[in-house]
Amino acid sequence: MSARLGELAALLGGELIGDPGAEVARIAPLESAGPDAISFLASARYQSQLAGSTAGCVIVAPALRDAAAARGAAIVCADPYLAFARLTQWWAARTRRAPEPGVDARAVVEEGALIDPQASVAALAHVARGARIAAGAVVGPLCQVGEGAVVGEGTVLKGRVTLADGCRIGARGLVHAGAVIGADGFGFAPVRGEGTEGGRWEKIAQLGAVVIGDDVEIGANTCIDRGALADTLVDDGVKIDNLVQVGHNVSIGAHTAIAGNVGIAGSAQIGRHCSIGGAACILGHLRIVDHVQITVATVVTRSILKPGLYSGAFPFDDNAAWEKNAATLRQLHALRERLRALERKA
Amino acid sequence: MSARLGELAALLGGELIGDPGAEVARIAPLESAGPDAISFLASARYQSQLAGSTAGCVIVAPALRDAAAARGAAIVCADPYLAFARLTQWWAARTRRAPEPGVDARAVVEEGALIDPQASVAALAHVARGARIAAGAVVGPLCQVGEGAVVGEGTVLKGRVTLADGCRIGARGLVHAGAVIGADGFGFAPVRGEGTEGGRWEKIAQLGAVVIGDDVEIGANTCIDRGALADTLVDDGVKIDNLVQVGHNVSIGAHTAIAGNVGIAGSAQIGRHCSIGGAACILGHLRIVDHVQITVATVVTRSILKPGLYSGAFPFDDNAAWEKNAATLRQLHALRERLRALERKA
Amino acid sequence: MSARLGELAALLGGELIGDPGAEVARIAPLESAGPDAISFLASARYQSQLAGSTAGCVIVAPALRDAAAARGAAIVCADPYLAFARLTQWWAARTRRAPEPGVDARAVVEEGALIDPQASVAALAHVARGARIAAGAVVGPLCQVGEGAVVGEGTVLKGRVTLADGCRIGARGLVHAGAVIGADGFGFAPVRGEGTEGGRWEKIAQLGAVVIGDDVEIGANTCIDRGALADTLVDDGVKIDNLVQVGHNVSIGAHTAIAGNVGIAGSAQIGRHCSIGGAACILGHLRIVDHVQITVATVVTRSILKPGLYSGAFPFDDNAAWEKNAATLRQLHALRERLRALERKA
Predict the structure, then answer these.
(1) For B224-239, what is the mean pLDDT?
(2) Which among C261, C183, B204, C280 is positioned nearest to C270, based on CA atoms?
(3) Distance between alpha carbon B300 and the CA centroid of its chain, in Å?
(4) Burial of B338 (C-beta count, 10 Å sphere; 0-12/13-18/19+)
(5) Could you report the per-residue pLDDT of B134-191, keeping only the tens digit for each?
(6) C114 near C97, Cβ under 8 Å?
(7) In degrees to the nearest 10, what's the CA dihedral of A291, A294, A299, A302?
(8) Mutation for testing the C interface, residue in A11, A40, A87, A88 having most C CBs under 10 Å
(9) How many angstroms separate the CA atoms of A236 and A173, rounded?
(10) What is the DSSP code (8-state) at residue C65?
(11) Rounded (10°) CA dihedral C111, C117, C119, C124
(12) Has residue C267 got a pLDDT over 90?
């Protein structure tokens, strides 16, 4: 496919410097963009890369207008990274085939499921009774939509997604392959006593569901458990990466972003506009206020009541250095006592 | 649905204080339970919440009998949390539709699979030759049961579960969506030498299987690998949360509970009645005795031969404090040496 | 099944000590191998176990030739562990049924997909238009192969695998259940400003794909994301365990092995012949050179430009000791300052 620069400038609401009839055939990172590609400069920090680029066109911020014009064609946008994002969406819509509305004859749709005529249900999808699939929604191949589950307008479940009984997702969502929304929360009561029953676990049936807002994206093989009594809640605009575990009765505030491999234990309350780095771990029953950022691999063991940046990864090192420091770490408290003793003497 | 208090007291084997004909329509946490709900007080610690609750009925321990009676209807049980667990199960059984026995015409069942007439195999499930599905067992939509695999009596594989060739699960189990039981263990022999073959990995075919006992629950997208030569073993009553990795030839003792995102490397032996916190990591070929508790995110690098509580998470902090401490941590061994030098002088 | 020792010695290219007509019926670890089993001694370190073994035959290195001969039948191979690996493969090929070529009538294959007559597509698999499945390849039950995706010669997708649109895997690969190759990378541009739009995330459509070389194994429920603009790359001979997250535009060099629960953030470049321990975490946009080994649970926060062994796990301890040391760790920088003050005085 190809696109004319005039068309792209209009799409992005930017000022075009150069020939509106000139064409580009791809979007590329600045360092590898050739004359047939459009690229972008997300930040003025990268200005040094601009002059040497052979890109057919570059999206730049107003501050770089002159520098870009000196090089060749450019589209000037207030926020080039955002413009780039919108350009990729437009490009994808032009180059990818949208699923056709209708229920494939090889899908299994139980009686009493309500499928909007403008929804698409693929071959080998399974939609149980009482489920509702709204207009423009897509249920991909090998998905399972449980009894009474609801898929909102325009929401896409890519292949092999589970939306379990009674769980609901709003409009314009996107759920990637392997995600499981609505498996049971991990809840058991210990059976006390010394007999053969003692030490067993009695299951707490998970009677709640998962309720997800609009514009939510959920990554591949991510799990969001259903609530024990009340529902697990994911608010509008939340973005969750792959292989994330969200326990029962967690609530995640609007526009919070959660990177891959994160674990959030039951009943944690995460605020709005938070970002949680990869492989971080948040304990149960605690609260994180709005606008908190947690860096990679941090283990959050108590509530965070003040916005800001929080960290907790062990600094890695070459193995020999790490071994020495880790061994000393086991005596750290004793070291402090020895230091205190010296201080008293001094 | 609704239930009369007399019926619930009989079910739970507790003493009813109040009108046996009074009805409740839901189970709710104490803080949000209204007059149409039954709730519970898991511990006397929460006694202060009791007086203010508007719950229609509260399950309490004998010690709180009088305090509860002063408030309104109550059911007195020796272990209110356990009673609550049993109540949720009864509630679920009353409100959820059980799958009907029989093989759906749109399931794929290969010749030579033995499906008990009282088992249920859903549409789009795939059951290979030689598999056996016992009475009361449920194979949900889009599940894959491999050749010669065995599903015990009353065990439920929710949708999109894989039970691979030759793997077995006992009675009354529950496996959530996306779980993979019996993928290959991660075993390779290095090819030595300097040529093009050198540094390659030669696969060790995984000839064992996975054998799972009775009353085991396995979470969504959890993986339990098949053994290399002998089998991987999960004993009775084990509860495993979501996104847990269990390597080949691991054995997990009865009634051990494992939280989400845990990784257990090959040939580790975990005892009975252990609990392993979320995102903990257990190295291979080591042994953990019975009644060991491991807290969240702990990396267990050697055997644990004494029951007790073990920890190892890095304490998180605001980023500035963490950076200072983490930087100093890299010099910790040197600090110790400096301290020692001072001590010698003093 | 059973195998004669003469046949096995020829297969492994080793010298047989003993009766070529003697038979073994299984492969077993040395400590549990009885007279009907063949076993192996991976290293001379285990020599003490040799004399007491009742194994029908033992594969040993030349250095142990005499010790093995004194005990009974043996096959002498230059690299017994590698010979064992090859023996398991041969055993598996002899005892497991290979899928028959052809497309099962209950598979869904869209028009325009190219399936080699020698490929096998199982019941309930979904292969989209434009996909190509090469000779000897196997698409297992409930797999999803996207539009234009390519499965190379002899590559096996076990059940419930997703290979998304346009993604390619080379020859002789093996992908385990639940793996998702080609879900969207996690890329969003923040929408700035104070209005209702401010703080939202705008999706960056992921226009790249995933390209995987030959002889690659990918574990159960592992995710490899498609690239944003360019492709995510996994080179020949790479082995990836279960529940691993590989972000968009990562590249992984040939013959690198990655254990379970690892997370690799976007655009990281991992070299050849590396090994990455379980639950390790590698940040985005950094570079790791060839022949780097990273131990379990290490968080790699900067590039590693020198081959070697790197570590970073917090040393675990019993809870009481850990609590003391962790609390002191929060004051570590202050301790250093106090030490410095003492040193100045001394």
Answers:
(1) 98
(2) C280
(3) 19
(4) middle
(5) 999 999 999 999 999 999 999 999 999 999 999 999 999 999 999 999 999 999 999 9
(6) no
(7) -20
(8) A88
(9) 9
(10) H
(11) 40
(12) yes
Rounded Cα distance between B282 and A44, Å, is 46
* Conformational region of residue A243, where left means phi above 0, alpha means psi within -120 to 50, and beta covers everything else: left
Q: Do A243 and B239 touch (CB under 8 A)?
A: no
Residues of A with catalytic roles: 248
* Average pLDDT over all residues of chain B: 96
A partners (3+ CB pairs within 8 A) are: B, C
Of B313, B323, B336, the CB nearest to A328: B336
Dist CA B88 CA A207 (whole Å) = 7
How does pLDDT run across B266-285, given as a tens digit for each residue? 999 999 999 999 999 999 99
Q: How far apart are CA B210 and CA C194, in angstroms?
A: 55
Determine the pLDDT at residue A43. Answer: 81
How far apart (Å, rounded) are the C-alpha atoms in residues B178 and B184? 16
**Is the CB of B242 less than 8 angstroms away from the CB of A325?**
no
How far is Cα C238 from Cα C243, in angstroms, rounded to an integer?
A: 15
Task: Report DSSP state, residue A194.
Answer: S
Which residues have a Cβ under 8 Å from the Cβ of B288 and sit 6 or more positions away?
A: B268, B269, B270, B271, B274, B282, B294, B300, B303, B304
CA nearest neighbour of B7 among B49, B79, B78, B57: B57
Residues near B335 by beta carbon (within 8 Å), at least 6 away in sequence = A328, A335, B328, C335, C336, C339
For the whole prediction, is pTM greater than 0.80? yes
Say which residues have a Cβ less than 8 Å from residue A186's Cβ, sequence separation at least 6: A225, A247, A248, A266, B219, B239, B241, B242, B259, B260
Please state, in angstroms and rounded to a whole number, the distance separating the CA atoms of residues C105 and C122: 8
Of the candidates A84, A261, A79, A54, the one whose C-alpha atom is nearest the C-alpha of residue C207 is A84
Instruction: Let me know if domain A3-95 sits in CATH 3.40.50.300.
Output: no
Residue with tokens 């599903």: B151
Amino acid at B320: A
Using DSSP bridges, classify how beta strands B15-17 and B74-76 pair: parallel, antiparallel or unpaired: antiparallel
Question: Tokens in use for B119?
Answer: 């088992």
B230: confidence class by pLDDT, cuts 50, 70, 90: very high
- Give the span between the Cα atoms of B216 and A200, in whole angstroms: 11
- Give the pLDDT score at B196: 72
Radius of gyration of chain A (CA): 26
Structure token pair of residue A127: 């939609």
Rounded CA-CA distance B125/B177 in Å is 13
Strands A74-76, A15-17: pairing is: antiparallel
Domain ranges of chain C: 3-95, 316-346
Question: For residues B211 and A218, is the Cβ–Cβ distance under 8 A?
Answer: no
Nearest-by-Cβ selection for C124 from A88, A124, A255: A124
Distance in angstroms (rounded) separating the CA atoms of residues B132 and B113:
6
Would you give the distance in Å from CA A29 to the centre of its chain? 22
Q: How far apart are CA C321 and CA A308, in angstroms?
A: 30
Laid out side by side, the sheet with A57-60 consists of: A15-17, A74-76, A57-60, A37-40, A26-27
* DSSP per-residue codes, C261-330: T-EE-TT-EE-TT-EE-TT-EE-TT-EE-TTEEE-TT-EE-S-B-S-EEEE-PPPPEEHHHHHHHHHHHT
Chain A residue with minimum CA distance to C340: A339
Amino acid (1-letter code) at residue A48: S
Looking at this predicted complex, what is its ipTM?
0.97
Measured distance CA(A190)–CA(A296) in Å, rounded:
34
What residues in A contact B297, CB-CB < 8 Å? 281, 299
Which residue out of A109, A126, A167 would a mutagenesis test of the B interface target, given it has the greatest number of B Cβ atoms within 10 Å? Answer: A126
